[in-house]
Amino acid sequence: MKTVIKHIIILIIAFATWSTYAQTKKGYRFEGNYVIFTFSKYDYEEFTEDNTDNYIKFEDLTINNVVVAGEFNNWSKYDWKMKKVNDITYELRKHINDFKDEYVWEFKFIINNQYWAEPSKTDANAKLAQIKKSNLDVYNLKMDTKAAIPNRKGNVSFRLKGHENAKKVIVAGSFNRWDEHDLEMYKTDNGWELKLDIKAGEYEYKFIVDGHWMIDPSNPSKVLNEFGHYNSVINVGKYVTFLLKGYTNANRVILAGSFNGWNEHDIEMQKADNNYWKLRLPLPAGKHYYKFIIDGNWILDPDNPIKEYDGKGNINSVFMVK
């Protein structure tokens, strides 16, 4: 395992179960500094016509366009038009800076600028609408754009050594829309520290020491920002378990992938008692390509239907860490 961690290039601060976001949030997800709105027509059974009490069944509606409407754009039926991904899915990518002042927003999808997609009250992030578009009891989707929550058992630890005479130290980043007051660090014997629950993804951040912004001196990963200065960067990941069923007569099974430079030797899987080869290792958020090597023979993951060409004539299995 030490060798595995040595070959993982992207910085991973810590790994723990992401409990705060355990339930799937309908209609959106985070990808670093962006909120990705996603509409799938199979997620909804009914639609209501704008300013009426008329329900429209899913099968009776032909979709020409989809718009995201919510508190963040004054419930506009036209402004935030989504891009068609395929016959069933539409998406819209918005930077977190597009969401000002508040953290929590209500929103819905509107079809053909006229029909509101109605979430079920059992959806994890459904909320009874306070301002109704009709006399019906309808639900909106709720979105929280703050991806970081203080927690002493959190999966990411921020530490700043020294600055013993500072009165206040803040950590701010893309995970909390660069709020200058929200995440105050606490003093330790060696400096300042704060633990957060942060969803998997890549984020930029800085420390604010008595009003002075600075990068993390202990983190070599940084990117140039729009002001000509640098922000520190973290990639928050999680543990992933790889399983290969069968091949009980094999002498050695290796996991190789984009996460370790396709090394053919350093990640050796362990034979489990239940007819499986198994390995659990930390991976950063993002798309990862991999294969198994069974006694020198490379194979795709037989239980993973997701695979892609690599542009060099090879096909690899694909695993997404979100």
List key phrases describing it.
about 325 residues; mainly beta; 8-stranded antiparallel β-sheet; 1 helix; 28 strands; disordered N terminus
SSE layout:
Elements (H helix, E strand, L loop, with lengths): L1 H6 L20 E4 L2 E7 L5 E4 L5 E3 L8 E5 L9 E2 L1 E2 L4 E7 L8 E8 L3 E3 L8 E3 L10 E6 L3 E3 L5 E6 L7 E5 L12 E2 L3 E8 L2 E9 L2 E3 L7 E3 L5 E16 L7 E5 L12 E2 L4 E9 L1 E9 L2 E3 L7 E3 L5 E7 L1
Antiparallel strand pairs: 1-2, 2-8, 3-4, 3-10, 5-6, 5-9, 7-8, 9-10, 9-12, 11-12, 13-17, 14-17, 15-18, 16-17, 18-19, 18-21, 20-21, 21-24, 22-25, 23-24, 25-26, 25-28, 27-28
Q: Give a quick account of the main beta sheet: strands, pairing sense, barrel closure.
A: 8 strands, antiparallel
Instruction: Name the shape in a single word.
Output: flat
With helices defined by DSSP (H or I, 4 residues minimum), what is the helix count?
A: 1
| Span of the ends, CA to CA | 22 Å
Please trace the helix and strand order, writing H or E for each element: HEEEEEEEEEEEEEEEEEEEEEEEEEEEE
Helix content: under 10%
Strand segment tally: 28
Mean pLDDT: 83
> What is the alpha-carbon Rg in Å?
23 Å
Global structural class: mainly beta
Which residue ranges are poorly predicted, with pLDDT under 50 across at least 5 consecutive positions? 1-23
| Proportion in β-strands | over 45%
